[in-house]
Design goal:
Layout (H helix, E strand, L loop, with lengths): L7 E2 H10 L3 H18 L11 E2 L35 H28 L5 H27 L12 H8 L4 H29 L3 H31 L4 H11 L11 H6 L4 H5 L3
Parallel strand pairs: 1-2
Helix pairs in contact: 1-2, 1-3, 2-4, 3-4, 3-6, 4-7, 5-6, 6-7
Length: 279
């Protein structure tokens, strides 16, 4: 008779995978972790115990540098990234590589949201595990497509703007929810349609289809950020719009510029009052 498998400590597992430097191994491990969670809710597993222990009260500390990342890509300033024509293989590869780098950072930011912030409800942690697993899938799809173009993740340079905002908001889960999913990641909702159109126009339908998957999932990720931001505002008796403006100034968030994908933002839970402030 087999011995029942011991549940994983989810927050500790998230920290362990955050520290993993190999991008391919990290993505595969996080997808597997997310599969454990999703299997719990399948029809065959409704009566099983949770695969995780969520020790939300425990304060964790990393034992190595975070985030774990490979030696390449070399990180440069956003303005130092080379400009290439989308009509060349190199140009398409540069775009796909940039998107893969964003998704790699997005895996890390979701894992960081799990381990770093204690005393949140259990579904906060499983929400962010879902995000991490989907970001890992996005990275894997983009990296596989990049290899068909003769490149791989790390072949080109990248920038670190997304993680820099994660790093700035380590002191407060409210700031993290406000300024990473609702600000930095929401920009991906705005940029995705035009990038997908450009890829379609140059005949890269496979990449365009990957971007369609990413946009669909990212709406859900931003919605999770919106949900927990508003939940935290309610817990602290804060008005969401005024608080968001204060946090943007306090943490030097980038100013949002058009065009905006208003429909995607609506689906992600932004209110009409919030959308009106974008114009």
């Amino acid at each position: 008779m087999s011995t029942p498998q011991q549940p994983l400590e989810l927050r500790k597992a998230a920290l362990d995978w955050l520290c993993e430097p190999n991008a391919t191994i990290k993505a595969a491990g996080v997808i597997a972790l997310g599969t454990l969670n999703s299997n719990q809710y399948s029809n065959q597993n409704l009566n099983q115990h949770s695969p995780f222990i969520i020790a939300s009260k425990i304060v964790l500390s990393p034992e190595s540098a975070i985030p774990g990342r490979p030696l390449k890509p070399e990180l440069v300033g956003p303005l130092d990234l080379p400009k290439r024509s989308m009509r060349t293989i190199e140009g398409r590869a540069a775009l796909i590589h940039a998107l893969a780098h964003i998704e790699f950072n997005a895996i890390n930011l979701a894992l960081d949201a799990i381990w770093r912030f204690a005393d949140m409800p259990d579904n906060y942690y499983t929400d962010w595990l879902k995000v991490a697993a989907e970001e890992a899938l996005h990275f894997s799809l983009l990296n596989a497509h990049l290899q068909t173009l003769g490149f791989e993740y790390g072949s080109l340079t990248g920038h670190n703007s997304l993680w820099e905002m994660v790093d700035r908001t380590t002191d407060d889960v409210l700031a993290r929810m406000a300024l990473v999913p609702r600000t930095m990641e929401a920009r991906g909702l705005d940029a995705s349609p035009s990038l997908r159109n450009k890829l379609s126009q140059v005949g890269d339908t496979a990449a365009a289809e990957i971007l369609a998957i990413i946009l669909r999932d990212e709406i859900g990720h931003v919605a999770i950020g919106n949900y927990w931001y508003n939940w935290l505002c309610q817990q602290r008796n804060l008005e969401p719009i005024a608080t968001f403006e204060i946090l943007c100034k306090q943490y030097s968030a980038p100013k949002l510029r058009p065009p905006f994908n208003l429909e995607a933002r609506r689906q992600a839970g932004f209110t009409e009052a919030e959308l009106a402030l974008l114009n």
